[in-house]
Design brief:
alpha/beta, Rossmann fold, five-stranded parallel β-sheet, 13 helices
Amino acid sequence: MTGGARRVFVVGVPRSGTTLVQSILAAVPGVASWTESHFFSRHYRCLPGAASRAILVRNPEEALRRFLAENGLEQTLEDVVSSLGDQALLGPPGWRQALLSSRVARDFVRLLDLLAERQGCAAWVEKTPAHLRFLPWLQRVLEPGSVCFVHVVRDGLATVGSLHRTSAHWERRYSLAECIERWNRDVARSLTRANEDHPTDRFLFYDDLVRSPEATARTLVEGLGWPWEEGILARRNGVSARLTAPGEEFWKARAGEAIAEDTGESVPLTPELRERVLAGLDHELLPRLRAVVARRGRNR
């Protein structure tokens, strides 16, 4: 594959279809992808009142070793980092300093470049939903024009129900109120990005994908400057398995199944809880986002 986006981050509210979209993009020939890195969400913090500034708060070395291992990459972290010619990722003395924050971010992206290159790929997709909140900062510190951000957006009721149920298997379960607040906050972030009309951003609505899988997927792939092939959706079924951490993340199993309409089973809420969710959601956000995206053509 030549041309098109080289570095793509898939972001959004957890349980909104980000794994499904990642598997589609990873099925494009010449595109590499891996399990969720959680690199920025677990090792950086956005500075209060400054969305375009973030600081490294935790040494990422252990997480990087785990990331390489769960993706079946035999190289040691030291071998990979030595290829970059920079030891910042290994947490040298002074790694807590603010001046290293941008440098480590750029080194991590270069590490993904190297891993993709070693797989014979010209582009890569990284999917960690929570990286959504770092987009203003990433856009500032990374090479201009080198990245694209794909926002995946799904109906609030379905997303909150699935997130509330699935988080029971995570380190900490989200309360229903937290799930509602997460959807409202993150979709508002996507709306802000759409209003600002960043050329780096693309938007995919989950409901569009399940209604018209091929047309919606093709629009996204070609919007990234990549060639569409008829076998991409079929290959996605096999690709999705290697994007899941071994022995974990069983909740992602359906990402490899046929794309179909939501039957409602993913919203395991009693009538009372359903009403609470509907009362807490900001129902203006999704239609407003759709309108802005349609007007500005930011899904292609």
